[in-house]
Write a structure and sequence with these properties.
By secondary structure, the chain is mostly helical. Among the domains are: 79 residues, 2-Layer Sandwich (60s Ribosomal Protein L30, Chain: A), CATH 3.30.1330; 34 residues, no CATH class. It has six helices and three strands. The protein has a three-stranded parallel sheet. Helix 3 crosses helix 4.
């Protein structure tokens, strides 16, 4: 029993020393790793903002047309992107009155034109970030088509649409 305990202590000591020397062999990459992870995180966030192209009510100071810090940040990023790649921006109404919503849309337009986006190429609308989606009837047809045998080689969406109907 004493021999087993001595051997186990020796193995534990060897593993500990081995791990320590292995860690020293790699050096101190902690700060570099942290910077790399932060850079990846920021890139992911920026990509999401650009893909969504949406300004939500939480981007404004509650009940006002003033953009909060997050709203200014996101619009600055969108402005950089829209200068090179014109397109639409969504401004979600939420529970804002018609007057407040119109003023928010004007504030977004103003912020983007100040960021260098050509007003003529800018479309502002109130829609979902991912588009309008698919109707429930069409989705049901797609699901049904996926589960039924067919001679068609098209996709489920193609098989679900009646012939002669354009999208």
């Amino acid at each position: 029993m004493r021999t087993t305990a001595t051997v186990m202590m020796g193995v534990a000591l060897g593993v500990t020393v081995g791990c320590e020397s292995l860690r020293q062999g790699f050096g101190d990459h902690g700060p570099t790793n942290i910077r790399m992870i932060e850079s990846l995180r920021q890139t992911s966030i920026s990509s999401a903002i650009i893909v969504q192209r949406t300004v939500y009510p939480y981007h404004f100071v509650s009940g006002t047309t003033a953009l909060n810090e997050l709203g200014r940040h996101d619009l600055a990023l969108l402005g950089e992107h829209l200068r090179q790649h014109p397109g639409a921006v969504n401004v979600r109404r939420g529970d804002a009155s018609n007057e407040l919503y119109a003023s928010r849309v004007a504030a977004v337009r103003r912020a983007l034109t100040q960021a260098g986006v050509a007003n003529a190429t800018l479309t502002v609308r109130d829609t979902h970030a991912g588009g309008t989606g698919i109707s429930s009837e069409k989705m049901r047809a797609v699901l049904d088509a996926d589960h039924s045998p067919t001679e068609s080689t098209g996709t489920a969406v193609d098989r679900a649409e009646p012939r002669g109907v354009s999208r």
